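ARCHIVE RECORD
Type: protein–small molecule complex
Small molecule: NAP
Source of inputs: curated submission
Record status: active
Notes field left blank by submitter.
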Amino acid sequence: MTKILITGSNGQLGSAIRDLAADYPQFSFTGIDIHDLDLTNEIGVRQFLNQHAFSWIINCAAFTAVDLAESQPEKAYAVNSGVPRLLGKICIENNTRLIHISTDYVYNGKQWTPHTEDESTAPVSVYAKSKAEGEMVLRDNPMALIIRTSWLYYKTGNNFLRTMIRLSTEKKEIGVVTDQTGTPTYAADLADAVLKIIDFSENNGFVPGIYNYSNEGVCSWYDFAIEIMQHTGSNCRVNPIRTPEYPLPAHRPEYSVLEKKKIKTAFGLAIPYWRNSLLKAMQEITLKK
Ligand SMILES: NC(=O)c1ccc[n+]([C@@H]2O[C@H](COP(=O)([O-])OP(=O)(O)OC[C@H]3O[C@@H](n4cnc5c(N)ncnc54)[C@H](OP(=O)(O)O)[C@@H]3O)[C@@H](O)[C@H]2O)c1
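STRUCTURE (tokenized, with ligand):
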């Protein structure tokens, strides 16, 4: 059986992968999060990984508080760059394959065509720079496959979907930005793609490198909010606003749509359209209640 370690297993993507475990009986999963092992503790990480012979590590652990990273850069870099650097080294030593998750924020978002994997990156915020460094330290690692994703949400965790659902009952009207364009990604879809990539690689060989993954389609945060509110049936009015009207500590890319031809071709993936996946996620949330 193929042994897989999920780091950050209580986060959005980590939880989504754990929730899919039954669909992949050929894999055995171990999940760890910060309360089990702080991944910035090199001695602890080495001890743990040398005790268990994992075939794969899926690194979902990250410092994802984009605005907080502006005032806590050391912490952001330790987790977003230090951890992949360490895992990458240990993976070479232990012959373990690593799937590391990165972000659309590595692009500066000034270009209005979908971003390809080989175009140059220009991260702006501390979070974005720390994630870009996390890619750099793995770029030439033959054991590492990096997946950039965007606007991740799940039925649990801190995300835009859950915030909008909460606001739909708390507020009569809200303002949401129309001048940032990207694609939402349902964590369950990304989780399934990651596990399909592992399955594919086990059978056909491993191809390291950088791959983009989000749901299909394009929208602004405003469009995303409208779609959510319509499904909730709420009367909360969503007003279109511009980014300067909702100032935040960290810069956000204006346009971060990802080109996904590479991942679809390499692994034969069919990627769901964002509206269809949003509906599924909202049905899951209703069922959970
Ligand atoms: N969320 C998005 O919109 C988005 C967009 C693009 C890319 N991504 C990337 O996608 C990946 C998954 O994101 P996500 O939204 O699932 O993240 P998440 O929900 O924030 O989960 C990350 C997990 O990592 C844990 N963690 C943080 N520091 C750690 C440490 N030192 N040792 C061990 N575990 C640690 C966190 O614990 P605590 O919660 O206790 O800190 C959390 O459980 C990340 O690489 C992220 O950068 C996310």
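CURATOR ANNOTATION: The chain is about 40% helix and 20% strand.
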